[in-house]
Amino acid sequence: MSTTFSSLPIVDLAPLQAAQGPSDSELKDLSTQLHNVFATTGFAYLVNTPLTFRHADVFGLALEFFNLPQEEKMSLAKQSFRKGNTNTYRGYFPTQPEQASDNLKEGFEIGSTTSVETRSNPTRDSRFDLSEPNVWPAKDSYPSRQRLENFYSELQILSSRLLSLLAMSLGKPADFFDPYLTDSLSTLRLLHYPPGETAATTTPSSSNDTYSRDNTTTPPPEPSDPVKLSCTPHTDSGILTLLHQDSTGGLEVQDSSGKWVPAPYIPESIVVNIGDLMAKVSGGRFVATMHRVRAPPASAISVDKQPDAKMKDADGSRAKFGRFSVPFFFEPGENCVVRAVDDDTGSGIVYGEHMRAKMKTWVEYN
Ligand SMILES: O=C(O)CCC(=O)C(=O)O
Ligand SMILES: [Fe+2]
Question: Which residues form the Fe2OG dioxygenase domain (predicted)?
């Protein structure tokens, strides 16, 4: 049950780093901790994760992409942004200030590196191919492709381990959700929020026009508290989200009373939250919490970015300014039938159909 809170809990994943693996009692303890945070705040920080990527590595990968010339980024744009392109689901999306002044972000998304041919029975329609291959800049423009793919794999493995712990916490065997992950559609997204002067002052939008797999819903009104947003209030739609945010700040999470609680930067931490799908699968025990991002101030340049040699601004790119974040949306396969763990009625929803229906309401696909 969602609760009030004034800060997010911290879950220490150090036991997952042990060479000999966690003990049974450590696993049980982690499972209970995760259950408790996801049943209350729905959001937590993870520290001492087993990832080999440090924050500087992660934001280096993002900066290298966003510092590419705009035309090169647009050559990777999804079809809804560049008609001649064939990629419908993976690739680049630019900021769209004319569509949503409270949703100012550019992004680059990749899915699994498993080739589509090896995937079982993808259901395609003419508009969106959820299993389409990734698109990439030329090798010498983006030498970090392999590292980004490795990062995706590490995040998928970590998410799977967390999902096993959640299965245990719901009274199921650790491998209960393994079938969900056949041909998983997880997405790794690099995000850049340009500095605040371009973001309009706004009361939070009631539009559903987020550029993402986010589920944007109407937040409670805040007439006395107009804020500049660059990511409009939403819940995420999948199983879990693992978020790397830089030190700019601005992420806020809504508690059950409607209050927005800051989720400030904690060095080397990952923010984790439950998506709509996992809230449903848990039979309502876990909560998919609303969150948003304040527009970064015009002066925003976080310490993570400063020492990087790639900061040179040859083409006038302003990518070094603003906020960077890297969410990983952990999602099941397209053909996965999703139902609540204790629901024996046989009903369920096919995840791919659910995603396609949702995408029709997102501005980037219309
Ligand atoms: O940039 C952030 O910190 C959050 C992004 C987010 O919530 C999303 O992309 O779903
Ligand atoms: Fe989100």
Answer: 183-332
Q: Distance, CA 359 to ligand 1 centroid (Å)? A: 17
Whether 251 is in the pocket of ligand 1, judged by its Cβ within 6 Å, is yes
Cα of 314 vs centre of ligand 2, distance in Å, is: 32
DSSP calls for 139-174: TTT-TTHHHHHHHHHHHHHHHHHHHHHHHHHTTS-T
Q: Which of 166, 190, 133, 140 shows the shortest CA–CA distance to 42?
A: 166
Work out the number of other CB atoms within 10 angstroms of the CB of residue 363.
18
Whether ligand 1 lies within 6 angstroms of the CB of 212 is answered as yes
110-138 pLDDT, tens digit per residue, is 999 875 544 554 455 557 888 899 999 99
* CA-closest residue to ligand 1 atom 5: 327
The answer as to whether 55 is a domain residue is yes
The ipTM (two decimal places) reads 0.99
Main-chain dihedrals φ then ψ at residue 45, nearest 5 degrees: -95, 140
Domain presence at residue 256? yes
Total domains in the fold of the chain: 1
CB 211 within 8 A of CB 103: yes
Which ligand sits closest to the CA of 109?
A: 1
CB distance 214 to ligand 1 below 6 Å: yes
Write the CATH number for 336. 2.60.120.330
Q: Is the CB of 333 under 6 A from ligand 1?
A: no
Q: How many whole angstroms separate alpha carbon 97 and alpha carbon 191?
A: 15
Q: Which domain holds residue 305?
A: 10-196+227-309+326-365
Could you say which DSSP state residue 125 is in? -
Q: What is the pLDDT of residues 42-85, one digit of tens each?
A: 999 999 999 999 999 999 999 999 999 999 999 999 998 999 99
Q: Which of ligand 1's atoms lies nearest the C-alpha of 292? A: 7
Identify residues whose C-beta is under 5 A from ligand 2, the ion: 236
| CB of 327 sitting under 6 A from ligand 1 | yes
Q: Is any atom of ligand 1 closer than 6 Å to the C-beta of 237?
A: no
Residue 243 is assigned to a structural domain of this protein: yes
